[in-house]
Amino acid sequence: MNLLVLGVNYKRTPIEIREKLSFSVDSQRKALHYIKGLEGVEGCVVLSTCNRMEIYLHTEREDYNIDQIESALCTLKEIDIDTIKRYLYFYQGLDVVKHLFRVTSGLDSMILGEDEILGQVKAAFELSLEENTTSSIVNGLFKEAVTAAKKIKTVTEISNKPVSVGSHAVLTVEEVLGRDLSGKTVMVVGAGQIGKVFLANIKDRDLKKIYVTIRGYGRKNRRELSGLKTDLINFKNRYDYIDECDIVVSATTSPHYTITKSPLKDYIKTNKERVFVDLAVPRDIDKRIDEIEGVHYFNIDYLNKLVDANYNSRKKEAVKAQDIIDEYVEEYEKWYYFREMLPFVNNIKNFSEKLVRNRADDLSKKVKGLSKKDEEKIQYAIKKTADDIINRIIYGAKEIEDKEHMQVYFQCLTDVINQE
After folding, report:
1. Domain spanning 3-161 has what CATH number?
2. CATH 3.40.50.720 spans which residues of the chain?
């Protein structure tokens, strides 16, 4: 199976390294074309989130040199391999399928069963489709991963309780300010998926005001945020509102800080406790702001330390989810290997079609006085019967358990039809 994945994630890689390897959408586009242009690469998808960066490849050969993609990553991120080598993980073949299905379903996430990753995987795949850097094998892989994840969300309870990064940011705020957030003022920098999840989880807490600031200060952004009862402010003026705020959450894809210590300390006038939560990779907020009196700073890695009250129940649901994943992995494996048999399939179908034409022509010659319509009916009946038999013979092979047995099966069929 000519599939590979190279990546880093939150389990073994600190945020300082993850942010060096993260991709914005623009740099993701560049990376897709660069990687697709490498010798031996048939298709690729680049997944970049706060907690992981992964490059999925479909290659011409199973023995693809992984050093080539490591070198490409270092070139794209302008980083030395010795800096990142010990953090990189690598899967090949069927292990890639198993890994992607677990990732997409939230079973490999920092917060077990979280929903955001499904949207992020879909977005990464759709960007690859848009940039024409996928292949039929990659398309089948990601479509099946999304389908499996949706089924898991539907038939298990793994995602029924709020477990996303955005919802846990609210829990972090409550650790400092208490559960009663009435009368508090919030600022959210960035209104992407994570920022919106945070807003959705905090908007009904009887807040005094919610400010949202984004660089794209346009009609589309105003329309998307209109249902959340927020005040959209110009990004350039964000510090002017900071003194009012009790809670500031930043979740952008910017390569630069959105909040730094130097301007912040000059704009804070009121003496009160404030919480700043940085949900971005690369980091949005200068961590030195926690040196300012009354300021409590948390980044995305801190969320990993939160105790999840529903963890045990989600672990039970994760067992059910894994059973579903195993079923989908098996189906994808059969589909993948069946595709490799297509040359055999085409030979068998061509033989069948030729045989049907010959038999129909022979019958038409032997039976005198047939109208054109009668001949067509006979040809249709023979073809329909032959197609039904051939389809059972061919597509029943999808149930064969492994590639070797499937190949022997089709080879035997080919040998039979090639006999004089």
Report:
1. 3.30.460.30
2. 165-305
From CA 169, how far away is CA 190, in angstroms rounded? Answer: 14
First-to-last C-alpha distance (Å) of the chain: 35
User: Between 142 and 376, where is the model more confident?
Assistant: 142
Domain with CATH 3.30.460.30 in the chain: 3-161
Strand partners, 8: 53
Measured torsion, CA atoms of residues 197, 201, 206, 207, in degrees rounded to the nearest 10: -40
Q: What is the pLDDT of residues 210-224, one digit of tens each?
A: 999 887 655 555 555
Its pTM stands at 0.65
E strands within 24-95?
41-48, 52-59, 89-92
H-helix or E-strand spanning residue 198: helix 193-202
The domain made up of 165-305 is a member of CATH 3.30.1460.10: no
Sheet holding 3-9, edge to edge: 41-48, 52-59, 3-9, 89-92
Q: What is the pLDDT of residue 191?
A: 74
Residue 212's H or E segment, with its range, is strand 209-214
Q: Residue 169: which of 11, 12, 304 has the closest Cα? A: 304
Contact (CB, 8 A) for 212 and 230: yes
Q: For residue 403, give every residue at least 6 positions away whose Cβ sits within 8 Å of its Cβ, in sequence order, or none.
A: 337, 340
Residues 6+ apart with CB under 8 A from 307: none
Tokens of 205: 């807490």
Separation CA 5–CA 100 (nearest Å): 9
Residue 239 and residue 87: Cα distance in Å, rounded? 37
Active site residue 50: yes
Q: Which residues contact 27 (CB under 8 A, 6 or more apart)?
A: 76
The catalytic position among 44, 50, 245, 412 is: 50
* Number of residues that make up the chain: 420
